[in-house]
Amino acid sequence: MPPITFRHATAKDLPTILTLLADDAIAQSRSGYAEEVGPAVHAAFQEITADANNELIVGEQDGQVVATLQLTYIPGLSRGGMRRALVEAVRVRADLRGQRLGEALMVDAMERARARGCGLMQLTTDKRRLEAQRFYARLGFVASHEGMKRPL
After folding, report:
1. How many Cβ atoms sit within 10 Å of the Cβ of residue 107?
2. DSSP codes joined into one string, 23-72
3. Any residues with CB less than 8 A from the CB of 24 and at least 6 apart, and which?
4. pTM for the full model?
5. Which of 1, 4, 53, 100 has its CA 20 to 30 A from that of 111?
């Protein structure tokens, strides 16, 4: 298997990132699902890349983007001012799942978070994503809290 490398996403990566994000029935069932890079997606990308506390990371293999995640660094007062890293939108191309690319992506994210002074990494995953839950548990994540969301 060719090696995978990780880097910050560029605007030219957006179509592939959107394809990765939409590559399952749960994602496609959500409101706001975007198939194309429209003005709102482009604006969100610009905001992410302009914010020093956000990174949009892609995994590249043989010159193709095959994985992605967003990493947000959160300063906080709890736990003695400890910084946290929040991981969102983790995806690996469907035909490459099960080859430990997701693990490599998450290890890279943890290294980035440690380098930024974070003492904790957190994430949420849809309750229907049983394989994802097993994946995160294998990496040492613990389902210690109940996540809640509310549309605004």
Report:
1. 13
2. SSHHHHHSTT--SS--HHHHHHHHHHHH-TTEEEEEEEETTEEEEEEEEE
3. 94
4. 0.92
5. 1
Which residue do the tokens 């290890």 mark? Answer: 107
What tens digit of pLDDT does each residue of 41-72 get? 999 999 999 999 999 999 999 999 999 999 99
- Bridge partner list, 88: 70
CA–CA separation, 70 and 58 (whole Å): 9
Within 10 Å of residue 91's Cβ, how many Cβ atoms?
22
- HEC letters along 120-132: EEEECCCCCCHHH
Six-digit token pair at 71? 């990493």
Summarize pLDDT for 81-136 with one digit per residue, the tens. 999 999 999 999 999 999 999 999 999 999 999 999 999 999 999 898 999 999 99
Residues in the chain: 152
